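User: Fold this, then the next.

Assistant: Folding the first:
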Amino acid sequence: MKWLNRLEGTRRYASGLEWRIWRKLPIITLVGTLLPALLWLVCDWTLDPQSSAEHARWLLTAGYVALGAVIFHWTMVLTVGIGCAIVMVMKGPGYVADAYPLSHRDHPSGINRKGP
């Protein structure tokens, strides 16, 4: 069973910004994941958690902030990717779903249009 059945006589529109963004998403994901991780590693290398409780607490907080930043970034990349996919499908040829009979075809929303 095919999910998308092409409508005859429709045309594709020119691709735009969505394809450029779509192609850059893997590198954007990689950079957005590595930057917070590297910053946290730099903090881990420079601060000694054994020296004071304040350094240990600050290092733990920095780890949580880095993890939150990575998860937020992944969520944004996924959202932009879904948006790009929707625009790609919308700019492509027209598609039609399987037809089914409507029960309210003659009288939409149960309103009688013949008048009093």
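Now the next one, as you asked:
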Amino acid sequence: MSITREEQVEDEKLREILTKLREVVDPEVGLNIVETGLIYGLEWENNLPKIVMTFTTPFCPVGPVILAQVEQKVKELGYPDVIIELTFDPPWDPSMMSEEAKLRLGITDNDKKT
């Protein structure tokens, strides 16, 4: 399950990171990576923020750019380093997007992957 709302994260500092990640836009979709459903997990590992995330496709041509932006946004919050775990399990699909993002892109329940 993806994290698309701050209410899904209990830790206040991790919520702050999630909010900051809204500044990272997936140029292929035109929406930020949080609303797009690319964030799968936020936690602490060895006192560093750890972000588990995916791309809309394993062969995402802008993947390195998105990862660099994620790292930069976390560093802007004062963290010297961040652990980013890239996963494709489960594979991303449009049903992982926030309801707002689906509305903006005109995706209905009938469009969801089954």
